[in-house]
Amino acid sequence: MKVTSTPSTSTTVAHNAVPPPSASSTARSSRIAPHSHIKGLGLTAEGLAASDGAGFVGQANAREACGVVVELVKTRKFSGRALLLVGAPGTGKTALALAISHELGAKVPFCPMVGSEVYSTEVKKTEVLAEAFRRAIGLRIKETKEVYEGEVTELTPTEAENPLSGYGKTVSHVIVGLKTVRGTKQLRLDPTIYEAILKEKIVVGDVIYIEQNTGAVKRVGRSDAYASSYDLESETYVPLPKGDVHKRKELVQDVTLGDLDAANARPQGGQDIMSVMGSLVKSGRTEVTDKLRREVNKVVKGYVDQGVAEVVPGVVFIDEVHMLDIECYTYLNSLLESPMAPTVVLATNRGHATVRGTTDIIAPHGIPVDLLDRCVIVKTDGYSRDQIGKVVQLRANTEGLKFGPGVVERFAEEGEKSSMRYALQLLTPAAILADIAGRSQIEAEDINEMGELFIDAKTSAAMIGPDGGFIGGNSF
Ligand SMILES: Nc1ncnc2c1ncn2[C@@H]1O[C@H](COP(=O)(O)OP(=O)(O)OP(=O)(O)O)[C@@H](O)[C@H]1O
Ligand SMILES: [Mg+2]
């Protein structure tokens, strides 16, 4: 096996040798997820898919179809309906669902799960599904509160001798100066509020508001007078608030029905030792009873009628939906028909398959026909060699890998021969081989060498004989 181009055996580097620390490997500490190059569906304003966009390559029909679904979800016309993504493994079904969640934005709840998550020893299957559906229904609560809002101009804690313990000092009060367009105000605040200020990591120049009744402190962002010229940073800049420092402000809070259920399901209990012990022992997941859900619904309905809250139906995404069994499917049907149902996106790569939990029902995609009938189905297509090359290039850019000449074509060829996933999986080992050989970019020879080291699923399957098995290291 050829490892490096150096002829002498003594200098041959073993495959398991630790690669020398390189600048790129230490600089990139965050893990890159398989879909981190996907930023959205990449559609034009008219909803048409450009051939490549937002990290997506090809797959125009499926992307446009998902774009329509996003529009319907945003205009709240798709609640209680289901979209089913079908297609061969590795054709971007999971990626499409993630792109939908990107397009919907952070304000619409998106609850992803995998079909097999329903099999828990602690909670019933149907309960897991019901919980996911509840987590996908958002509630936007609007309240008008008296607040002090402004840009922090001064933050001075005043210390005093602690009368109880001899050492150290405590903060007796804190002086906070707030500035708005119209004026400034100096507030003298309680030490507990100072703790909240420390927790929110507030410094001079931030825009904050303090609720008058509760003393809750919230950081809105950094005042744009302090905006820097960086192109990319995590800070959000906000303008200097208008009006007076002390004013009535409409605050918006986003929660989901799932959050409300969970908060009410865990009884607060008393302060006595037994209830504290009890809550420690009962650390497993708790089931929320239907009765509690009805109660929560009633309260929510009251809020909605008063105009305090607004219901925001979101999206439940069930990946590998063929893992659900017949009981889950019938429950899913009934959930879809309930009045407060979110949009459901399902994905599967199965063709004709037995429905799990039955012995004789064979259905398309392993999904019973009655549920299938309620779905709009979108098919993902396979990729051409060119498209595989483009995806490999995209991944290489996200992972910070460099290619020599002709390498993308070699990867695309491998991908076409086996699958796109296989080509993507080869990226990191190829980078390691290049590193071992002392190169900063991947060359075609690294990929050739990988052909000797690894085999793809198709080759492996072909190597297993008709009886299926291995004896003494040989397949037979
Ligand atoms: N059109 C595309 N553009 C860019 N990247 C893609 C595209 N399609 C797939 N990918 C990437 O290829 C990899 C495999 O895709 P994905 O996991 O979405 O496949 P899948 O259809 O969900 O497969 P499975 O049925 O096995 O779950 C992912 O890293 C994904 O981001
Ligand atoms: Mg998938």
Automatic annotation (TrEMBL):
Region (Disordered): 1-31
SUPFAM superfamilies: P-loop containing nucleoside triphosphate hydrolases
UniProt entry keywords in alphabetical sequence: Activator, ATP-binding, Chromatin regulator, DNA damage, DNA repair, Helicase, Hydrolase, Nucleotide-binding, Nucleus, Transcription, Transcription regulation
Biased composition (Low complexity): 1-12
Reaction catalysed by this enzyme: ATP + H2O = ADP + phosphate + H(+)
E.C. number: 3.6.4.12
Organism superkingdom: Eukaryota
One Pfam family in the UniProt entry: TIP49
GO molecular function per UniProt: ATP binding; ATP hydrolysis activity; DNA helicase activity
Signal peptide feature range: none
Residue ranges occupied by any AAA+ ATPase domain in the UniProt entry: 79-369
Single Gene Ontology BP annotation: chromatin organization
Annotated protein name in UniProt: RuvB-like helicase
Source organism per UniProt: Coniophora puteana (strain RWD-64-598) (Brown rot fungus)
